[in-house]
Amino acid sequence: MDKLKIMAIVERGKGKGNFSCFATESIGNYSLAGYGSTAREAMEDIKVSVQESREMAAEVGQDFPEEIEFDFRLDVGSFFDYYPLDVTATAKYIGINPSVLRQYVSAIREPQKKQIDKINAGLERLAHDLGTGLKMIDRPAVSYI
């Protein structure tokens, strides 16, 4: 087998430091999952799961892909853990009540599809706005006068 691309979902559980990452499909008899106290740790841990599964498959003479590439998809809580954005400022920018977004981020509440779509659209707008080529000044503003 060659390179295989698999979607992996990264989610934040209730409580602090409770993240999981799981592949949306199994490889033969092997389910891939990772856990950690941050989204990044869970994403790294699923890679350990790949190596462990590869070794187990080799022990019993089963084929296992030589290389697996993950297409990571993050829920709201894991997104804000992965990217250190200010939740309140981001909520205001994308037009969502800051306390509601904080509840989504901390896994107190789970957003409905409509809210997820609104968050995604707002984050895409933010990414676009950041990528427009605007530059910061290179010295204090008063020195331009």
CATH first level of the largest domain? Alpha Beta
The DSSP helix count reads 5
What is the makeup of the main sheet?
A: 4 strands, mixed
Helix content: 40-55%
For the residues shown, what is the average pLDDT? 91
Write the layout of secondary structure elements.
Layout: E1 3-12, E2 19-23, E3 33-36, H1 39-59, E4 67-74, H2 76-82, H3 87-94, H4 98-105, H5 113-130
Parallel strand pairs: 1-4
Antiparallel strand pairs: 1-2, 2-3
Helix pairs in contact: 3-4, 3-5
Description:
- With 145 residues, this protein is α+β, with helices and mostly antiparallel strands.
- The protein folds into two domains: 3-74, Double Stranded RNA Binding Domain (2-Layer Sandwich); 84-130, no CATH class.
- Helix content is 43%, strand content 19%.
- The chain contains five helices and four strands.
- It has helices at residues 39-59, 76-82, 87-94, 98-105, 113-130; strands at 3-12, 19-23, 33-36, 67-74.
- It has a four-stranded mixed β-sheet.
- A hairpin with a 6-residue loop joins strand 1 and strand 2.
- Helix 3 (87-94) packs across helix 5.
- The N and C termini lie far apart (65 Å).
